[in-house]
Specification:
Layout lengths: L13 E5 L4 H12 L3 E6 L12 H10 L3 E6 L5 H15 L4 E4 L15 H29 L2 E6 L12 H21 L4 E7 L6 H6 L14 H11 L9 E3 H7 L11
Parallel strand pairs: 1-2, 1-4, 2-3, 4-5, 5-6, 6-7
Length: 265
């Protein structure tokens, strides 16, 4: 079945969301299901909080409570075989894969470079960049066979700005942005869109743990903003943005979903 990228609806699309047990991944999964998508939620464990603020089972429960369709898959995206099994499960549960949201990521807070040992470097890079590669490598053949699809990579301003003191995180997100551009260029003429979605720092449990002595309202954006932007993007024309990295805040303003800041005279 061909996947129309501008059919104005998420009904009957199958979406895989990695890192779906908490934070932005959970918000996006619930929002996608509420709009009719069949959602495959994936995380490293089923019922053990990874950073203290949510589990995969809780995400699935929230989706089912609203009548949504969901399948849980335990996967470490660093493991190629586990990712292959994730996609097999998605096809078994819902028949096909239309959209992939590469949200799984490791952000360990601010760490000076001299304190960044090789193990930390590899853990961040392997989760944030290699994990996205594994998922894209499984998604693209299925999307080609199905007539098209959409890949959304959740990136960060840390890819292009050095204000966040964590070198492997910024480098991994810069690599993810380059992967986005490369896949969009290579597969755009075969009806596969690949887009980067870049949230601001968001008010999630993980961010609150990272900055326990700061008020999130003073620096973090609402946690549902990326979900709102993702759904709007998928319900409109993803191919129009393929290869781009979109700021969540700017996209929401452009679509009229949040008010624009006042213009100073």
């Amino acid at each position: 079945m061909s996947t129309a990228l501008n059919d104005q609806t998420l009904k009957d699309r199958t979406v895989i969301v990695t890192g779906a047990s908490r934070g932005l991944g959970r918000e996006m999964s619930i929002a996608l299901a509420a709009r009719g998508a069949a959602v495959v939620v994936a995380a490293r464990s089923l019922n053990r909080p990874t950073q203290g603020d949510g589990t995969l089972l809780e995400t699935a429960k929230a989706i089912r409570a609203k009548g949504g369709r969901v399948h849980c898959s335990v996967v470490d995206v660093r493991d190629a075989a586990a990712v292959a099994d994730l996609f097999h499960q998605a096809e078994t549960a819902f028949g096909r894969v239309d959209t992939l949201v590469n949200n799984a990521g490791l952000m360990v807070g601010e760490v000076a470079f001299e304190n960044t040992d090789p193990d930390l470097w590899h853990r961040v890079m392997d989760t944030n960049l290699l994990g996205a590669y594994h998922c894209c490598h499984q998604a693209i053949p299925r999307m080609l066979a199905g007539g098209g699809g959409v890949i959304v990579n959740i990136t960060s301003g840390a890819a292009v700005r050095a204000g966040f003191l964590n070198q492997p995180y910024g480098v991994s997100k810069a690599g993810l942005d380059r992967l986005t551009l490369g896949l969009a260029t290579e597969f755009g003429d075969r009806n596969i869109a690949c887009i980067g979605l870049s949230p601001s720092i968001s008010d999630t449990g993980s961010v609150r743990q990272m900055y326990p002595h700061r008020d999130p309202g003073s620096f973090a954006r609402p946690a549902d903003w990326p979900a709102r932007a993702l759904c709007a993007l998928l319900e409109n024309d993803p191919m129009a943005y393929s290869g781009q990295v979109l700021s969540v805040r700017e996209y929401l303003i452009d679509q009229g979903l949040i008010p624009a800041p006042p213009q100073h005279q």
